[in-house]
Amino acid sequence: MSREREQGMSVIVKTITRLTVGLILLYGIYILLHGHVSPGGGFAGGVIIALSFVHLMLAYGKDVALRKLPKPATSFFEGMGALLFLAIALLGFTGGYFFLNVLGKGEPFRLFSAGIIPLANIAISLKVGAGLFAIFVALVLLKYEAEERR
Amino acid sequence: MTPQAHIVPLFIILPLAGAFLTSLAGKRFKGLPDLLGVASTLGCLVFSLVAVRLVRLAGVLVYSVGAWRPPVGIALVLDGLASFMLVTVNLVACLVFVFSIDYMKRFTSKWKFTTLFLLMLAGMNGVIVTGDLFNLFVFLEIASVASYALVAFGTGKQELEAAFKYAVMGTVASLFVLLGIVFLYSFTSTLNMADMARVLAVKGPSNIMLLVSVLFLMGFGLKAALVPFHAWLPDAHPSAPAPISAMLSGVLIKSLGVYALCRIFYNVIGMTPQVSSLLLFLGALSMVIGVFLAIGQWDLKRLLAYHSISQIGYVVLGLGLATPLGVLGGLFHLFNHSIFKSLLFLNSGSLEYATGTRDLRKMGGLMHRMPVTGATNLVASMSIAGIPPFNGFWSKLLIILAAVQAGRFGYAFWAVLASLLTLASFTKVMKYAFFGPLRQEGKGVVEVPFMMRCAMVLLALICVAGGALLVPGIREVFLIRATDAVLQGLRYGTEVFRSVV
Amino acid sequence: MIAYILCLTLFCVGLYCILRKRNIIKIIVGIIIAEYAVNLFFILVGYRWEGRSPIFSSDTPIVDMVDALPQAVVLTSIVIGLATTALLVALAMRIYGKYGTFDITKIRELKG
């Protein structure tokens, strides 16, 4: 029974997924990069990026999704995002205060402005996206483990 | 601003960096989690001792994160009470981590344990150091969620059930705290604790402050395991692995519960007679109910958990008296309880490591086979029962004297009664575990490894020497500064704004 | 005024779920509902009469905005809620693996 479900959903769902997953990822990256100009930012962008991978897993089954983003890579991105955020915060010490905005601020409402905020957004989105996907993978694997035992 | 003031964010940065590095590389390099953990906790301990000296020289240190001045930005405030709590938390964390290096070899994935432990430490340090109310809530949640995961670390049946109960109750408590913060924000329009103190000093008492007080008492009271919010503690503390029980009972319920209560009720909202009598009543209730429920227990860790409830009742009784002697006694007992309760839990961990059981009826006559564990357990039992000259005696004496001085003879009577019952309970522990005839199962028992013995002996030494903290020269540096920081009440606001750089 | 009372009623509904339901998953849903209610209440507290959304853009002037601080704070609070929910669900699945049931009246190994 669960062997069939592992193959994923029907052909219609698979076709639409193939067309839209890349667009969802791109949308997530757009929300992430414009976090200092419009609402959104690191957390929202990261969630949408994670959702694109989860969408892949729901439509095709866990094997295909884990081939695209294997578990060691997920853990690596998660840890890297956290360390990057801490490194950016420590960069503020060069200006005198913890978490100070040390890079050039530019003019408001442009894409390359507001100092360290876009970099912090990228770090947060790495951590949140990888973290959400890892939680989803862990819960799915827990379910399979429980089913195997029965 | 002096270069030394940069020490203040290091209390959060160091454990966080350790946690992130361990989660990234801890699986591949075998010795890395231990090394990073010891380095982080030892570093935090050294910095906390430096912080005590800094506060003595400079008074209050206010660090504006990101150069945004309060009340616009988040401020980290280091005053007498904060440095006192930092020394307590980091000292116990360092020694417990040294103990856990050998103890956790029995569990799998040690790097996961180190990551969660350092995250919990970062959360506790953040709660103590922060000067912003919502930042306090964020760090409270970091420490709480890490502790829920740590209680369930062994993934046995009992651990999971206890962890789920603890997690649901802890989440409800955090929701009450958040609701209180929302009401407080709508009344004062600011989230900075010093600014709130200034605004509330001007506005005076009102109905909404009564609601906020009740919500905070419910929320932080559950984190501190006051009766009637104690129901999670007797299940969560025994099921957790021994170093985690020591951390939970030793520092988590104090840093998240008692310190937050103290800071908010004394420095932000202002201590009123109603809140004072409520704290006294809840403290006395915890003292008595905790010790009565503890006497009949045969599971060693469950007995220790009920005694934690009782001793926290002592601390809240001392703090609720709102007199200088009472607050001094309460804070000193907080420090002492961290030391001897974590030592007691580490002892129970050693007993479990060596004999494989927690039931007192199955142990007996282990004093000769495990001399270090037996001796340190004797020291800790005498401390908690209040026998001179160990540190527990001095702090309990101060609390009882303060109660008599304030005219509350009933509370003093209950405090003495609880102390006698504690003595009876620990005589039972010593008799059944260490003295008495050696059983058949106990014949093959050996003493625990070196690191575990080291941690226990160091904690026992601090138990013995703890009374020296009341000597007039040392008292000014450590305890009196903390008491003054608490008793200054709503003047906290003006003090902090005067020291902003 | 009605909005605040409805928000607090939602919080009480969540609290009722946590206290009275027997299925673990329903308890977790109760926690989620109560959390959402508190977040919603926080944003409602920041409402200014006839204000617009607090987004700083180059063409409109900065007048008549609702309070922006609760919105930033609620964002953090939602993330905290996500982390707690994930942990609770993982615990619930492990409990199901060990005990075989989601009913809390049957999960009573620890006494008192």
How would you concisely characterize the structure shown here?
The complex is a heterotrimer of chains A (150), B (501) and C (112). Chain A has 150 residues and is mainly alpha-helical. Helix content of chain A is 72%, strand content 0%.
Description:
By secondary structure, chain A is mainly alpha-helical. Chain A has one domain. Chain A has helices spanning 2-6, 11-33, 42-60, 62-68, 71-91, 117-149. In chain A, helix 2 runs antiparallel to helix 3 and helix 5 (71-91) runs antiparallel to helix 6 (117-149). Chain B contains 19 helices and 2 strands. In chain B, helix 2 (32-58) packs antiparallel against helix 3. With 501 residues, chain B is mostly helical. Chain B has a domain at 273-470. Chain B has a two-stranded antiparallel ribbon. Chain C is mainly α and 112 residues long. In chain C, 26% of the residues are buried. The longest helix of chain C is centred in the C-terminal third of the chain and has 31 residues, at 69-99. Chain C has one domain (2-47, 65-106): Orthogonal Bundle (Helix Hairpins), CATH 1.10.287. Chain B binds chain C through residues 134, 138, 141, 145, 148-149, 152, 155-158, 160-164, 167-168, 171-172, 175, 178-179, 182, 185-186, 191, 234-235, 239, and chain C through 11, 15, 18, 24, 27, 31, 34-35, 38, 41-42, 45, 69-70, 73, 76-77, 80, 83-84, 87-88, 91-92, 94-95, 98-99, 107-110, 112.
Note the topology:
The complex is a heterotrimer of chains A (150), B (501) and C (112).
Chain A: H1 2-6, H2 11-33, H3 42-60, H4 62-68, H5 71-91, H6 117-149
Chain B: H1 10-25, H2 32-58, E1 61-64, E2 75-78, H3 80-103, H4 110-129, H5 133-151, H6 157-188, H7 193-203, H8 207-223, H9 233-239, H10 242-268, H11 273-295, H12 300-320, H13 324-355, H14 371-385, H15 391-405, H16 409-433, H17 450-465, H18 472-487, H19 492-498
Antiparallel strand pairs in B: 1-2
Helix pairs in contact in B: 1-2, 1-4, 2-3, 2-4, 3-4, 3-10, 3-13, 3-17, 3-18, 4-5, 4-10, 5-6, 5-10, 6-8, 6-9, 7-19, 8-10, 9-10, 9-12, 10-12, 10-13, 11-12, 11-16, 12-13, 12-15, 12-16, 13-14, 13-15, 13-17, 13-18, 14-16, 14-17, 15-16
Chain C: H1 2-20, H2 24-45, H3 69-99
